[in-house]
Amino acid sequence: MSFCGELRLDGKPGSTELAATMLAASATPAGGPVHLQAAGVLAVAAAPGPGLGAAADLAHPPNGLLAVVDGWSTGGPGSGGVSGRVVESWGRYGLTCLDHLLGDWALAVFDPATSRLVLARSPHSMRRLVVHHTGERLLFGTEPAQLRAAGIPLRVDEAVLAETLTRDLTSLHETLLLGVERVPAGHVLEVAPGRAPSRRPFTSLLSVVPPLRAAPLPVAARELRTALEAAVHDATARAPVAIGLSGGLDSSTITGIASRLAARDGGPARVVPISMVFPGRSHDESRWVDAVEEHTGTAVLRVKPEPYNWDRWRQWTADTLDMPPRPNLALTEAVGTAARQEGLDVLVSGEGGDDWLTGWRSHWPDLWRAGRLGPLWRQTGAGISPRSVRTRLAVARRHALAPFPRGIAGERLTLPWIRPARLRGLDLDGRFAAADAADAALFRSYDQRERWRLAVVRASLPLLDTARTIYTGAGVDWRHPFHDRRVIEVALSTPGLTMYRPGETKPVLRAAAADVLPESVRTRRGKAHFDLELVDAVEEAGGMGLLAGGPLVADGWVDLGIAKAAWTTAVAAARDGRQPPDPQHGLVALWQLVGLDMWLARSGVRF
């Protein structure tokens, strides 16, 4: 669903005409009639979207609160969809009701009596809320193109641009557009006339500290399985759904559980796993997909993606104001398209399994500080020869005594192709230090901080915004059971001693999903890498020569010669199946140049 609107801060009535103009700019296709609502200084426009019913989820009882919701939640008492339940709960519990609202959602709640507007997103939500604030009004919407339609100035935030070039972002709320902010997942933004906007986290998940004492693996696996079944059930209940199946552990788990639930009353009416295939390519995962199909008895729809269409994505960027997708992400559009051709408007993913369940050594510093040296030593390995002991001691020192990594690479990244002169005056060091200090203050243990991995979350925001727009534009609602609140809570409550096992990732998930996975997938190590898809697409279009004459080179941000040399090195490494000499100078970092240059050239945004 899409919604947007205007909150006047100068006492004038909100304009439904403006709200309707904003909504018309949405990339998400409307699934039904547009709903316009005015309440004093607020005007809202909303339209139903894929997978969320035939009517906009908006509730406004007489003389009461107004609520509008993009997203879904579990059933419960109340009427009028999710928005109706929010209105009923808000009267009793206020903001605290959001902490108990399951599902994936972004919402706005307005109190006409106080002219107070609250915008919020569920924890780790993939949905969006963006705002633009002046002294006279606050504009808000689920897509940046809606704000553009309201006439906001389109200027780039140069500090955010510099951080996006390195993927070392320091803020959850800033965007590439100067003056446009996102409401971060798990946060509320409160706005009222005469008061400065106030943004803060609301989720109690931030208070969950992973325990130090180990839990039996079967117990942890059983708790995770219960949470996963509930999450998959609620994301798929009584509806035909597609599942993006790669053949990896995470998406195969979702496919296996959904296939089991389909046989139960209240489960999905139909499950259609959809897999991309790449015959003859090193990243083809057909053998694992075939194994999942045989094990679950659920037929898999296989699709072969088209090559990267540069003209199509240039126009898409101009239309949406989002960064263009990397070529390996653009491949997944074929999955959304296939889902719609099958008559399916809900697409369930395995996104989030890596975030919450991989299992790291991040609990080791906590064990060291607590004096729990025995459990720590046992997790370094089993060898007792002098050489093995020396190796285990070195591993313990490196991971238990090392300072917490800052940013995505340990320290603020500086890339050789970015001209230092263009960064002067942006205070990137100060921003980086402030973000690091804020992250440290938010958490009570080393392990807790690493489980949330905020530096990685910030780096992923542009990519995930692009992915969501691709899927909603294709007419499907993209859902993620691994980011369900119940799954996150179980993951955060599982001790690091249980979550981590030397030589094996995701031991708790492998145990929890053992019966729904073929053995070849349950024991699978590693992942497919799609680097060559990126290489082929960029090389076909001219390599780093794409940047010649573009905004980044013309405005002095990028040294084209250095970028070309780095690209040549990274391509050679990718074709040999290895990392470049400096992993931070690889294909992903270089794609940032191409993607941002295309965004600047096509979006109408100016320096």
Description:
Helix 4 (158-166) runs antiparallel to helix 26 and helix 5 (217-236) packs antiparallel against helix 19. A hairpin with a 2-residue loop joins strand 11 (187-192) and strand 12. This protein is 42% helix and 14% strand. With 607 residues, the chain is an alpha+beta fold. It has 26 helices and 17 strands. The model has no long low-confidence stretch (mean pLDDT 94). The strands form three sheets. Strands 2-3-1-9-8-10 form a six-stranded antiparallel beta sheet. The chain has a six-stranded antiparallel beta sheet with strand order 4-5-6-7-11-12. Strands 15-14-13-16-17 form a five-stranded parallel beta sheet, with helices on both faces. The longest helix has 20 residues, at 217-236. It is globular and about 80 Å long. It folds into three domains: 2-206, Aminohydrolase, N-terminal nucleophile (Ntn) domain (Glutamine Phosphoribosylpyrophosphate, subunit 1, domain 1); 208-357 and 480-522, HUPs (Rossmann fold, 3-Layer(aba) Sandwich); 529-607, no CATH class.
Q: Count the strands?
A: 17
- The fraction of residues in strands falls at 5-15%
Q: Determine the mean pLDDT.
A: 94
Number of helices: 26
The strand line-up of the biggest sheet is 2-3-1-9-8-10
Helix-strand makeup class: alpha+beta
Main sheet: strands, sense, barrel = 6 strands, antiparallel
Shape-level CATH architecture of the largest domain: 4-Layer Sandwich
Question: So what's the overall shape?
Answer: globular
GO molecular function, one term: asparagine synthase (glutamine-hydrolyzing) activity
Pfam families: Asn_synthase (PF00733), GATase_7 (PF13537)
EC number: 6.3.5.4
Protein name: asparagine synthase (glutamine-hydrolyzing)
